[in-house]
Specification:
Elements lengths: L3 H17 L4 H14 L11 H4 L7 H13 L3 H8 L3 H6 L7 H10 L5 H9 L11 H16 L4 E2 H16 L5 E4 H4 L4 E2 L1 E6 L15 E6 L5 H9 L2 H6 L13 H7 L15 H6 L14 E5 L10 H10 L4 E4 L14 H18 L3 E9 L10 H4 L4 E5 L8 H13 L5 E2 L17 H11 L2 E5 L12 H6 L4 E4 L11 H10 L13 H11 L2
Helix pairs in contact: 1-2, 1-5, 1-7, 8-9, 16-17, 19-20
Length: 533
């Protein structure tokens, strides 16, 4: 079965190939728009009729037929035909960041380049410098993007690996209780190269559990050494050295905690076993109680059909309430984000009117009036002050002009942080894991500025972002900067991405006391009122 992500990727490829072959631009635009929207959702498109698919906002009958074909056959006649007449290497070139279909067509037709390897070689020979629309800067950018792509080949988002590993773990648990992820999966790292599974039963046959998508590595041991092996195989070399694992006595351990007790070290949760800042605290027995999903009282930074979301504001609010949360922060895109249906001033006021009515219906649950305001190139937010002051809170984020050096990116963010209307700095580096590196920033300067201006920093919980990087959370805590774990949800299922945010927040030693949306409704309401005075 194709996931929504697979279908969005297939539609995106269809659009790129149509543009590559100079087909109808209006058709290309419609397909690209659908791919963009579906790529931000967790909708299950399988087992739906064409008629049911057309009920999804923005999905025409033609697009519904394509989606139905993907869910039933894995492709469409159109995509198969386009792929058949396009060299596979040219298709690979379409996956290079910064190379759109028009530029790929130019390279293919004018320089007869038909693979990523050929392209990299041509760049190193300076063959793109004189090509119209390219130049030395573009050529260097292409080299960097190819190297980034090659470096990340064979890596997967944790969320993707989890979907493959979960049913395997469930099946193995039917045969023995001694089963666990280990390695990077157990540490809940953002990016995974293989799924390591530890089994405390050497007689279990694992041959049936084969995946073509990702390497699955089974480690089978005698039950008597299961917990010892679990700590050993789930920890980095630096962590093992730091806890002096080699000095561990040979005996039966009944739990992972038992292993740490024997080493006179405070128990380190699996997420912490990286060999970084956890070691000093573990040896001193001062590790804090890490944040848990149940500690979160509300969900901030979410989108509705007012901009590029898939569910209405009411649907987003009702489901949030059903999940047991006390409040919702709605943060649709601002007016500069035209590609995402950003809100013009009149739409902002219309949404605010609806929020007032919904708050009366859903009380004591509350919707806070928020916006994800674009940080412009000069660091300003993209509304005038008379509109900015109508919001309860503002998430300030960069979405455009991402090709900045560290000085420019840092300066741009600093000005936004100093804006008195900025409440939360959204996804600070703009990174997309395995997709694009974040723009370079001076993290210490940014965090120091947030501390000085009482701005919260977002940990964007979308599994493709997880930005701010967890490695910077301890510095945030040191400076007294609160972290807000936000799902950036574009539809109902997006709320469940909070789990991924919690995973990496724990890696960064975040506690509920330092998490902004661990505040109760009354606390956060008072915070907004006091800040906006």
């Amino acid at each position: 079965m194709m996931t929504t992500e697979d279908i969005a990727d297939a539609l995106e490829l269809t659009g790129k190939l149509l543009e590559l072959h100079n087909e109808n631009p209006f058709k290309v635009k419609a397909i690209n728009s659908a791919a963009y929207k579906l790529g931000k959702t967790r909708l299950d498109l399988n087992n739906q009729s064409i008629e049911e698919l057309t009920k999804i906002e923005g999905i025409s009958k033609s697009l519904a037929e394509k989606i139905h074909a993907f869910t039933t056959t894995g492709t469409t006649p159109e995509l198969s035909e386009l792929q058949a007449k396009t060299p596979i290497g040219v298709i690979d070139m379409l996956g290079i960041k910064g190379l759109g279909p028009k530029k790929v067509r130019q390279l293919w037709q004018e320089l007869e380049i038909e693979s990523v390897t050929d392209l990299l070689y041509a760049c190193h020979e300076n063959r793109l410098v004189e090509l119209k629309g390219f130049g030395a800067k573009t050529q260097n950018s292409i080299i960097a993007n190819i190297e980034f792509k090659l470096k990340n080949t064979g890596k997967f988002h944790y969320a993707y690996a989890e979907k493959i590993g979960k049913p395997i773990i469930e099946q193995l648990l039917k045969q023995t209780d001694l089963v666990s992820y280990t390695g990077a999966m157990y540490r809940k790292c953002e990016v995974i190269e293989e799924i390591d599974i530890l089994i405390g039963d050497e007689s279990i046959d694992t041959d049936e559990f084969i995946s073509e998508q990702i390497l699955i590595n089974f480690i089978q041991v005698n039950s008597t050494i299961f917990y010892r092996t679990l700590v050993e195989t789930s920890s980095t070399k630096e962590h093992l050295e730091g806890i002096h694992f080699s000095e561990l006595k040979t005996k039966l351990y009944k739990s992972e905690e038992d292993v740490y007790v024997s080493l006179n070290t405070q128990y380190c949760e699996p997420e912490l076993r990286e060999g970084f800042f956890e070691l000093e605290k573990a040896k001193a027995h001062t590790l804090p109680k890490l944040i848990e999903l149940a500690d979160l009282k509300g969900i901030l930074h979410n989108h509705s059909t007012y901009s590029d979301g898939m569910n209405s504001l009411e649907e987003m609010a009702v489901y949030c309430k059903q999940l047991g949360y006390e409040y919702l922060g709605i943060c649709d895109h601002s007016q500069t984000a035209s590609y995402a249906g950003g809100l013009k001033v009149e739409q902002v006021l219309l949404q605010h009117d609806e929020i007032i009515k919904l708050n009366q219906q859903l009380a004591p649950f509350k919707i806070f009036k928020g916006i994800e305001s674009d940080i412009l190139g000069n660091g300003n937010l993209d509304y005038e002050e008379d509109i900015l002051k109508t919001f309860d809170f503002i998430v300030a984020s960069v979405h455009a002009n991402l090709k900045m050096d560290e000085e420019k990116a840092t300066s741009r963010l600093l000005k936004a942080i100093e804006n008195p209307y900025t409440t939360i700095l959204g996804h600070p580096t703009g990174r997309l894991l395995l997709g694009r590196p974040g723009y370079p920033i001076d993290h210490k300067k940014i965090i120091d500025a947030c501390a000085a201006n009482k701005v919260v920093i977002e940990l964007n919980a979308h599994p493709y972002r997880l930005d701010i990087d967890w490695r910077w959370i301890p510095y945030c805590l040191e400076k007294g900067v609160m972290i807000s774990i936000n799902p950036d949800a574009h539809q109902l299922k997006g709320y469940h991405d909070m789990n991924y945010g919690i995973n990496v927040a724990r890696k960064g030693l975040l506690t509920k006391e330092h998490c902004f949306n661990s505040k109760s409704l009354i606390e956060i309401e008072q915070y907004f009122i006091h800040r906006n005075k």
